[in-house]
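Notes from hallway chat w/ T.B., transcribed later so I don't forget. T.B. wanted the structure written out for a chain they're using in a teaching module, and asked if we could keep both sequence and C-alpha coordinates in one place. Agreed to drop them here.
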Amino acid sequence: MSETRETEILKIADVRAQKTCSCGHNYMSHMVSQIGQYTGWGWFWVLFGVTTEPVRVKFVCRRCSTVVGISEDPKILRRDV
Protein backbone atom coordinates (compact mmCIF):
# COMPACT_ATOMS: atom_id res chain seq x y z
CA MET A 1 0.00 0.00 0.00
CA SER A 2 1.47 3.38 -0.94
CA GLU A 3 1.68 6.20 1.55
CA THR A 4 0.73 9.77 0.93
CA ARG A 5 3.45 12.29 0.11
CA GLU A 6 2.99 14.03 3.47
CA THR A 7 3.38 10.96 5.66
CA GLU A 8 6.37 9.80 3.64
CA ILE A 9 8.13 13.17 4.00
CA LEU A 10 7.26 13.35 7.69
CA LYS A 11 8.97 10.01 8.30
CA ILE A 12 12.21 11.08 6.62
CA ALA A 13 12.03 14.85 6.89
CA ASP A 14 15.29 16.60 7.58
CA VAL A 15 14.24 19.90 6.07
CA ARG A 16 16.17 23.03 6.99
CA ALA A 17 14.92 26.60 6.70
CA GLN A 18 11.33 25.56 7.33
CA LYS A 19 8.96 28.48 7.12
CA THR A 20 5.57 29.49 5.79
CA CYS A 21 5.21 31.64 2.68
CA SER A 22 3.00 34.72 2.40
CA CYS A 23 0.23 32.51 0.96
CA GLY A 24 0.25 30.39 4.12
CA HIS A 25 1.82 27.25 2.63
CA ASN A 26 4.58 25.23 4.27
CA TYR A 27 6.77 22.49 2.78
CA MET A 28 4.02 19.88 3.36
CA SER A 29 1.38 21.73 1.32
CA HIS A 30 0.11 20.47 -2.03
CA MET A 31 0.93 23.90 -3.49
CA VAL A 32 4.64 23.44 -2.78
CA SER A 33 6.86 21.77 -5.39
CA GLN A 34 10.19 20.06 -4.91
CA ILE A 35 12.90 21.42 -7.18
CA GLY A 36 16.19 19.55 -7.43
CA GLN A 37 19.50 21.39 -7.60
CA TYR A 38 22.32 19.62 -9.46
CA THR A 39 26.08 19.96 -9.86
CA GLY A 40 27.57 20.84 -13.24
CA TRP A 41 28.00 17.17 -14.13
CA GLY A 42 24.50 16.47 -12.83
CA TRP A 43 23.03 19.00 -15.28
CA PHE A 44 25.16 17.49 -18.06
CA TRP A 45 23.58 14.08 -17.48
CA VAL A 46 20.07 15.52 -17.05
CA LEU A 47 20.36 17.30 -20.42
CA PHE A 48 21.12 13.95 -22.06
CA GLY A 49 18.16 12.26 -20.39
CA VAL A 50 20.04 10.34 -17.72
CA THR A 51 18.37 10.20 -14.32
CA THR A 52 20.70 11.57 -11.65
CA GLU A 53 20.38 12.40 -7.96
CA PRO A 54 20.21 16.10 -7.04
CA VAL A 55 22.59 17.69 -4.52
CA ARG A 56 19.73 19.33 -2.60
CA VAL A 57 15.99 19.84 -2.92
CA LYS A 58 14.25 23.17 -2.51
CA PHE A 59 10.58 23.29 -1.56
CA VAL A 60 9.07 26.23 -3.51
CA CYS A 61 5.52 27.64 -3.34
CA ARG A 62 3.90 27.52 -6.79
CA ARG A 63 1.83 30.63 -6.14
CA CYS A 64 4.37 33.13 -4.76
CA SER A 65 7.69 31.36 -5.61
CA THR A 66 8.93 31.56 -2.01
CA VAL A 67 11.41 28.90 -0.85
CA VAL A 68 9.81 27.34 2.24
CA GLY A 69 12.37 24.62 2.90
CA ILE A 70 15.67 23.09 1.79
CA SER A 71 16.81 19.51 2.29
CA GLU A 72 20.02 17.59 1.66
CA ASP A 73 18.73 14.43 3.30
CA PRO A 74 19.72 11.45 1.08
CA LYS A 75 16.33 9.77 1.64
CA ILE A 76 14.48 12.78 0.23
CA LEU A 77 16.97 13.19 -2.63
CA ARG A 78 16.56 9.56 -3.73
CA ARG A 79 12.77 9.50 -3.25
CA ASP A 80 11.86 10.88 -6.69
CA VAL A 81 14.76 9.50 -8.74
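Follow-up for T.B.: The CA atoms of residues 16 and 70 lie 5 Å apart. Might be a good example for the class.
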